[in-house]
TrEMBL record:
Keyword set, alphabetical order: Oxidoreductase
GO MF, one example: glucose-6-phosphate dehydrogenase (coenzyme F420) activity
Enzyme class name: oxidoreductase
EC number: 1.1.98.2
Coiled coil: none
Membrane-spanning intervals of the chain: none
Domain of life: Archaea
Oxidoreductase is among the record's keywords: yes
Protein name: F420-dependent oxidoreductase, G6PDH family
Entry-linked InterPro entries: F420-G6PD/mer (IPR050564), Luciferase-like_dom (IPR011251), Luciferase-like_sf (IPR036661)
Domain Luciferase-like: 10-324
């Protein structure tokens, strides 16, 4: 089923404000929230560094039935995959069926900042795949289709020691008789992966339940064709996998205010930004101010002065093959955006389902 979810930006807003936004979103009809998982923000001025896992548990308690998914948690250095498995299994026990995990290869601003070197994209992807295998084994995760791992370094690297104890010996991660004594309550916690390069897209199809991509609708066909092909190779039905997008939006009746508010995300438009070794938000902000033009920023964000003007561009996401989209609003008045979207746009898409 296609649906629109809300996005909670841990880098841009205080935890208290995010509670306010997500409660308003639930009252208005949103059923799922995706939320970022960072140590540092993309922008120094006015940035926040909320610890997402703490916020998730509190937000689930404050809401009635809102589901949550991270977009994304990076298991490459600062988070050990076994600890990720334990944390999200515990949240699932407290709030059954309301948690999903989005995985990605990370950014330097989160990993280098806490003392790690920033390796090549291939090493980050290899570490991510090992982490996925550990998490899935600890969750005893049910597979969609018959996955056949085509990489011997992973397929022969782990074993069961008996009684569901997991011993995994990878190139980067290891476990030794590890077992979750508080396992997930759900049979199958959804597990998604953010990917852009061809190898990462292939891994998302093989090892997870869906792809998270920042591709725009006009770029999505090539990405989805590659993802679907890899899914079929893994013995999966592509129609059973999610294709998740994240349109960036800024709404205000005053265009200049809406555009100014989008400046917080200028650094995300730096060329090849996910491979940059820069980890200091002050330096990221300075680099973005020097290299990212206003025109490029405008193209990256749906800047609207009428909330109904979002209908057509959001329809284009679904027409391009996305199954879920999460609205990353950077509007000057976020509560106003949520209320107007829920009143005038969300019912339109709900009626089309």
């Amino acid at each position: 089923m296609k649906f629109i979810g809300y996005w909670a930006s841990q880098e841009q807003y205080s935890m208290q404000d995010l509670f306010k936004f997500v409660l308003e979103a639930e009252r208005g009809g949103f059923t799922t929230t995706m939320t970022s998982d960072h140590f540092h923000p993309w922008h120094h001025d006015g940035g926040f560094g909320n610890f997402t896992w703490v916020w998730l548990a509190a937000a689930a308690e404050k809401t009635k039935s809102m589901k949550f998914v991270t977009g994304v948690t990076a298991p490459v250095f600062r988070y050990n995959p076994a600890i990720i498995a334990q944390a999200f299994a515990s949240i699932d026990v407290l709030y059954p069926g309301r948690i999903a995990l989005g995985i990605g290869t990370g950014e330097a601003m989160n990993e280098v900042s806490v003392g790690f070197d920033w390796p090549s994209p291939k090493i980050r992807l290899d570490r991510t795949i090992e982490a996925l295998l550990i998490i899935k084994k600890l969750w005893n995760k049910v597979e969609i289709g018959q996955q056949q791992m085509n990489n011997e370094s992973y397929s022969n690297s782990n074993s069961l020691s008996g009684n569901d104890f997991i011993t995994f010996k990878g190139q980067y991660f290891k476990t030794n008789d590890a077992k979750l004594y508080t396992p997930p309550s759900s049979e199958n916690i959804p597990l998604y992966m953010a990917a852009s390069g061809s190898e990462a897209i292939h891994a998302a199809a093989y090892y997870t339940d869906g792809l998270i991509t920042i591709s725009k609708p006009e770029q999505a066909k090539k990405v989805f064709d590659r993802f679907d092909k890899a899914a079929r190779e893994a013995g999966k039905d592509p129609l059973e996998l999610e294709k998740i997008g994240k349109p960036k939006i800024s709404y205000s009746e005053d265009y200049d205010k809406a555009f100014k508010s989008s400046d917080f995300w200028r650094a995300t438009e730096i060329e090849d930004v996910f491979n940059t070794e820069i980890n200091n938000p002050m330096k990221l902000q300075q680099k973005a101010e020097q290299e990212v033009s206003d025109e490029k920023l405008k193209k990256s964000t749906l800047i609207v002065t009428s909330i109904e003007d979002l209908i057509k561009p959001l329809e284009e996401y679904f027409d391009a093959g996305f199954t879920q989209i999460y609205l990353q609003s950077t509007s000057p008045d976020e509560v106003e955006f949520v209320q107007k979207f829920c009143n005038k746009v969300l019912p339109y898409f709900r009626d089309r389902q």
